[in-house]
Every structure is written in C-alpha cells, then in structure tokens.
C-alpha cells in the first residue's frame, strides 16, 4: 500500500503518473517495446523528448533566447560545470545560505576564484543574509545562489538583483510556483524532487550567457555542445526524460504553476501555522525565508526523535528524519504531496504531542 512520503529526494511522484507509466511499461503505444528499450534517436522517442521539452518551456514560460538542456550528473555536476564553463581562472560570486551552496562554492574554488558574497553559516543558516550586506565583486563572471536550501529549509523567494549574471540552483523549488526566467542567466535543477526520477538534470541557459562559455573543455563538459546536439551528445537518460514529460503533462492538466503554487502555499502555511502554535515543535528559520518545499522541525526534547519517527512510520508517514547533518525532522512537501498528506501529518503531530508533551 502506498503511504505519505515526505522524502527530500528522490521524492514522491504523482500517483496518476506512476499508474500511466505502469500501463505503458511493457509496450509503449504499439511500438512492440518498452520506452526503455527504444533508441533515443528513433522518431518515436524524439517526439516524446521534444514534447517534454516544450511542455517545460510552456510551464515556466521560458523565453526563446534560452537553451533547455536535459543532462546527467545531477545538480552536483553543475557545481563543477558552471565554474568550468563560465569562470575558469576568473572570479565568481557565491551567496552562502546552506549546505548546498557551500558544496557549490567548494567545487568552484577548485577552478575559479570564488568569492563569498555573504554567509549565514554562523546562524546555522536560519536565514538568507540581507542584500544590503552583500559584498559583490566588481568583475564576477556570475552570481550563484541556491534558491531553496533543501537541508536547512530556507529560501530566497525573489530573484535577487545582482551586478553579474544570475545563476540559481532550483533543484528543490523548480516548478513549485511561477518564476520570471528572464531574470536569470542560468537555472539548473536535479530532477528527483519536482520533475521526476533521479538521473536527469535540467539546465536552462540564456544564449547571450552561453556565448561566454569556455570552448577548451572536453565536449561532455561544454553546455554549448549539449545545446548544439539538443541534449543528445550521447545517450540521454531516456526513461527519466520520458517520465519527467509525464509529470509536466500532469502539471499542465492541473492548471500549471499558478494552480500548484496555491496548493503549495496552502500546504506550507498550514504546517508552519501548526508548528508555530505549539510549544512542543519548532522551526528555526526566520519567517520571510521559510521554504515552501522543505520544512525542518525540532521536538522540544530531542530524546524523543526516534520515538516520533518510529510512530510516524507506523502511522504511514514516511521519511520524516531530518538530514544527518542537522538532525531533528524534515517534511519535504513537493508538488506531488497533496494537502491530505499535510493534514495526516499535523493530525499525527497533534496526537503525539498530546501523548508526550
Ligand atoms: C538544492 C540542491 N542542490 C543540489 C543537490 C544535489 O543534487 P544531485 O544529487 O542531483 O547531484 C541537491 C540534492 O538534494 C539539492 O537539494
């Protein structure tokens, strides 16, 4: 039996998408084979791939002067590819708001001069430093930030205005609400939260910015080569791409990003309101930077964490353990997690508090 899955990633996928995939798994549309067994260069697969790409373009309103790439290597490979393509032996600016931006900075530092614009590390990343305090370089190749820090559960809800081209890691927030892509030179995201299964990474890059990329890198590391070959420089992750396409169709059928944003805000508000009204649970992130996708919370008495997680699992609420680096709990409530899951969670939390509070 399927249960409520609060995993941070790989994360819940809409049930109707899984059912449709199941119905097509052995044979895709009278082709005599599974989509997994099909050449990526076959006309059938090319159609699946280009429909998925177009649906993503429609959902996010991606302007024509952007490349939309379907790559592999996870968001983590982007931590290296970005500085290699755009800042090899140059300067780049990094805003430090949590574990993922720290990792991005560490990789960039190996090939570029990576400047820390501001950091909230001394406050355990419980907020995003105010833009007034940012110390931007005058000649940075780009400004990198993580729009939603999956582990700490903080977010910058508006794209910042920066002196250099803006790059956002949107792995855990993409497709959760409308954004204005034209404010960014590059957006990237690992798929395994709001897009589909792991193994796929989406990169959205402005042509003008792409034109500044290094041409001396091995082909597989050059965004321009991936763009020229329409993400088929080598065999792409065909099954993940196909399934991502189904998630995009599901989003479109359900009213697109405006509609899902309403649901996401209702879900997050109801969970934060519940936590804030209790003395038993707490969330450390300052209000204006609270993530709508990842909600970490602590129990008043951390000795009860194991019991909480065990009882939650018994109640059909899975994967609520906080990241190993910070402990406590975390509910990841991506697009495929419905309001009913939040209701089940808050109901359980209420009962747990009554019993142990
Ligand atoms: C914000 C963010 N960036 C990067 C990553 C790393 O992604 P991947 O595992 O796809 O390399 C994650 C993974 O959870 C993430 O949440």
UniProtKB/TrEMBL annotation:
Gene3D superfamilies found in the cross-reference section: Aspartate Aminotransferase, domain 1, Type I PLP-dependent aspartate aminotransferase-like (Major domain)
Residues annotated as binding L-glutamate: 41
Domain of life, source organism: Bacteria
Keywords, alphabetical: Amino-acid biosynthesis, Aminotransferase, Cytoplasm, Pyridoxal phosphate, Pyridoxine biosynthesis, Serine biosynthesis, Transferase
Reaction(s) this enzyme catalyzes, per UniProt: 4-(phosphooxy)-L-threonine + 2-oxoglutarate = (R)-3-hydroxy-2-oxo-4-phosphooxybutanoate + L-glutamate; O-phospho-L-serine + 2-oxoglutarate = 3-phosphooxypyruvate + L-glutamate
Main EC class the enzyme belongs to: transferase
Cofactor names: pyridoxal 5'-phosphate
Keyword Cytoplasm on entry: yes
Pfam families assigned: Aminotran_5
Protein name per the record: Phosphoserine aminotransferase
């Amino acid at each position: 039996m399927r249960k409520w899955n609060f995993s941070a990633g790989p994360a819940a996928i809409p049930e109707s998408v899984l059912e449709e995939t199941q119905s097509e798994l052995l044979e895709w549309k009278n082709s005599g084979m599974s989509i997994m067994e099909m050449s990526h260069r076959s006309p059938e697969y090319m159609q699946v791939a280009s429909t998925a790409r177009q649906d993503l373009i429609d959902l996010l309103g991606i302007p024509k002067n952007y490349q939309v790439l379907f790559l592999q290597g996870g968001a983590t490979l982007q931590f290296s590819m970005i500085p290699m393509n755009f800042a090899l032996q140059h300067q780049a600016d990094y805003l430090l708001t949590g574990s993922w931006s720290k990792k991005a900075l560490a990789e960039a530092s190996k090939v570029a001069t990576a400047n820390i614009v501001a950091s909230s590390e001394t406050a355990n990343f419980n907020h995003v430093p105010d833009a007034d305090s940012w110390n931007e370089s005058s000649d940075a190749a780009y400004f990198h930030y993580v729009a939603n820090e999956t582990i700490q559960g903080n977010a910058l809800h508006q794209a910042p205005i920066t002196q250099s081209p803006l790059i956002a890691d949107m792995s855990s927030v993409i497709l959760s609400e409308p954004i204005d892509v034209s404010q960014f030179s590059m957006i990237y995201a690992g798929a395994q939260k709001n897009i589909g299964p792991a193994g796929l990474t989406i990169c959205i890059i402005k042509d003008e910015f792409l034109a500044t990329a290094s041409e001396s890198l091995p082909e597989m590391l050059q965004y321009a080569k991936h763009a020229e070959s329409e993400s088929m420089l080598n065999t792409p992750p065909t099954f993940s791409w196909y399934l991502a396409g189904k998630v995009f169709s599901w989003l479109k059928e359900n009213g697109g990003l405006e509609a899902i944003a309403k649901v996401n805000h209702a879900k997050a508000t109801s969970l934060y309101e519940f936590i804030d009204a209790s003395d038993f649970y707490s969330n450390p992130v300052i209000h204006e930077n609270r993530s709508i996708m990842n909600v970490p919370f602590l129990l008043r008495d951390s000795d009860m964490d194991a019991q909480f997680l065990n009882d939650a699992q018994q109640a059909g609420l899975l994967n609520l353990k906080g990241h190993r680096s910070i402990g406590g709990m975390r509910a990841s409530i991506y697009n495929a997690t419905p309001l009913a899951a939040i209701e089940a969670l808050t109901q359980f939390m209420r009962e747990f508090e009554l019993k142990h509070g």
